[in-house]
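>> received
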Amino acid sequence: MVRNIWVWAVLASIAGGSACPVAAQTGDAGPVAASTGQATQDQAFAADFERFLDQAMARFPLMPAISVAIVHRGVPVFVNAKGRADIEAGIAATPDTPFYIASSTKSFVGTAFALLDARGTIDLDWTMHELAPDVAFAPDIPADKITLRDLLSHRHGLAGDAMAFRLAYSGDYDAATLSRLLAQIKPDPETPFGTFRYGNIGYNIAALLVERRIGRRWQDIVQGELLGPLAMTETLTEGLAKRSGPPVAAPYRAAERLYLVKDDRTMHAAGGMYASATDMARWLALQLKDEGELARAAAAARAPVATLDASFGPFRRTGYGLGWYTGPYADQTLYHAFGSFVGARAHVSVLPAAGLGVAAATNDEGAGFRIVDLAALYAYDWYLHGAAHADAKAAEQMDAFAGQWAKQVDKVAAQRAERAARVSQLSLSPAAYAGDYCNADFGTISVTPQSAQLDLAMGRLHARSEAGTAPDTVRAELIPGQGEELRFVVAGGVATAIEAFGSRFAPCIDRGGQATPPPATP
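>> returned
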């Protein structure tokens, strides 16, 4: 599901941190000591990079926090976080604060599965049919051809919006629901088998199928095969409610606190990890190693499987492996795994030929969404082209982004004003729309009258309606920043259905054959 990223201008107070360069790293990634010349260079970089971050935070003071780990030739040269993990509680971000890394999770899952493949525990060339011979997939699904490797490299040609929505957003599912949705997976009419199309559903299906085959959840695999051996103690795939360590970074749009936070039910294989800067330094160091079982699995995951021709900002994309994009950068090969979600953005990339890796995360879907990329560009430019070049290019990029940012803020303010001026399109009183509306694929939408508006809820999602643009429609941001227009089907003075998410939701029926609750009459 594609999210719309909106920027909101709201006042906030941001506090900065201090630099914390690290001289060596322990754990499976291996302790590495820098030479005298490299140590001097790295110290100079750490000072310059801290200045860059301070300037970025000052230029965009509504950005709540940013967390950064940078590794050069096996040595973590900058590991720090600046700003607030929780503005309202006054909690500062630290190098040990876990930030949500969203789809960067895929690089961990891909590496863990590559490791199990190398050991013979699983086979990346197992087909869907071999993984789940008891599932009667639709006849137009080539289940005897689509492999685990295809699922992880987005070449599967499958569509499964409902499963992806439940796992990432609403959290409204049980094992039986997931099994039913798995059996009902359909071909993607726009992307045939063998064609690359990025999304979450391939990883969602892969995790379900591997668990059915070997009896291990993706969380247990990643924890046991990667996080434990790498001593990544502040990286989480679950257990958020019971956590006793440093609080995770809360989600914001600039300084506006967003209600939708991750919990265990929405931590899934395509986007289900929080990680600290300290831990991400260990992950980067692994990517830059040449020897060892984990390093070989990491390299196998980065190796491109699918081919494509695309870009994300300044980052070219010519291939995709098991969780990693591949593309040229400064005449070298850059591997990157980005992620974004409500109030979160992550940039993870490595340039092995230069011995460089960068992981930057923010709890902001405003300016921070772009700053994490500019931070990575500064690091690569500094080491490849020198401090003067990096400073000049960063200043140019920051000025350009500031102009774009100001326009975006004005645009969003105008859109908000336009929506606030709309007149209600509901033809009945709010009470006539009340009730629970069910869809077998997407779940239940609960509608409750609230004065002249409607409160809507879907599992963990909730929102108050705004006026729609057509008769009997409302607009609601069940997912913050992503407005959805819902249309009520009205007959006989009551609402008989809702059309939303490309599907139809009818009044839920209880065991006695009655709508629960029955639609109210005006």
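>> Residues 1-27, 517-522 have pLDDT under 50 and may be disordered.
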